[in-house]
Amino acid sequence: MSEMEGPAFQRIPPWVKAKLSPKAIETIQKVHDWVETECIPAEPIMKAQLAEQGKRWTTQPLMHELRQKAKAQGLFNLFLPNHFKESPGLTNLEYACCAEIMGRVYWAQQTMNCHAPETGNIELLAKYCTPEQKKKWLQPLLDGTASSAYSMTEPDVASSDATQIGCRITREGNEYVINGRKLYGNCIWNSENKFYILMGCSDPENPNKWRRHSTVIVPTDTPGITQVRNLTIMGFDHAPEGHGEYIYKNVRIPVENIILGEGRAFEIAQGRLGPGRIHHCMRLIGQCERAYELALIRSIDTRKTPRGKLISAFDSNIERIAQMRLEIDAARLVVLNAADTMDIHGNKAGRYAIAQSKILVPIMATRVIDECMQMYGGQGLTQHTPLPEMWTYARFVRVADGPDAAHRHQVGRDEIKTAEGFKKRNVEYQRKYKELAKKYGKEYETFWGVSADV
């Protein structure tokens, strides 16, 4: 059998296979084997350990055990692109194939230190920090001995317009003083969360609104940080990491905790969020594949025979299964294209393809998982299957790293910029049409979309 046959490579398009290095082929197979043998069978155990009294906000022992095993097998930090010296050597496209497989289990990514927000934070620190900062903050994340969170969203401003972020960062001597309120940073109740990467306003009077904000590192044990509560997502608390709501009151950090320099927050945020959006989308595709497989199993379950027929015998379900297959495969192509564009042209040049992925994939995922839930009937809404949690994650990703509207606006704005070029082409079509009409003695009519007087 070819090294790229079998379930690990079944859904990878031929053009992507042609770009995979030998190392990537080996890694994709190892990730597949890891998820299938170590993660999926352990799902009930992970939930049971989390449910033990008094341990809701403590990382499960099994998670620590799996992380050590994955690290020993070289399955750690796979996401970090190969242009970083700390990278294990995969391209964005190669890692995207791994991320899809990881998405089959919500927490599988964490066993390999490839989970959000760690992925974005590690790439941010690797890209923008000084050697001293990397040693203090990056290395523990790479080693898996600490975790971190990203603190950007605020409750009192439009989160889709980050220029409105109002949490104040004020310099006083050799310290920065932070005051404000934040949402979504991972819960401080989990003691493994060691620091926040916080975006705040350091220069509110700057005439350039894109230079008013800075990014700083805030240790979670700094006096003045209060977690108001855990933020549930559609009713799920997402323990043991979760999402918190925080008040920063006169929180003091040393000036050396600033990243890149004052006023550089937007440059940093764009460098961080692009790859993370692709990771989310590829994991969602893997999650959809798992949901789809559960729907297929349900469709041939001989215990479930409404009106004496298997669920798969009904035309509506045959068409439902076909439509899900088409949508998942189409979405995969969009995301793989974005990953490849980032590899070839860089994150900034790939922003259009990234935005396309971020808009299309979460919507597709919620629709596909919803159809799978329909095929399970009432059971599909309960803990009998992982489908409700899958749907919730997909719905959350529609907002995470920017809501649909913000990305649509970016795509639409870029498209409108191309209109003048198309207009010029159509004017030239019209000019040539006029010449042809005169040559062949035909009455001249208005050409498509171009006024007659042009």
What does this structure look like?
The termini are far apart. The longest helix is centred in the middle third of the chain and has 35 residues. The chain folds into four domains: 137 residues, Orthogonal Bundle (Butyryl-Coa Dehydrogenase, subunit A, domain 1); 113 residues, Butyryl-CoA Dehydrogenase, subunit A, domain 2, CATH 2.40.110.10; 151 residues, Up-down Bundle (Butyryl-CoA Dehydrogenase, subunit A, domain 3); 29 residues, no CATH class. The mean pLDDT is 93. The chain has 454 residues and is of the alpha+beta class. Helix 7 runs antiparallel to helix 9 and helix 11 packs across helix 13. 48% of the residues lie in helices and 11% in strands. Its cofactor is FAD. This is Acyl-CoA dehydrogenase family member 10. Belongs to the acyl-CoA dehydrogenase family.
The gist of it:
With 454 residues, the protein is α+β, with helices and mostly antiparallel strands.
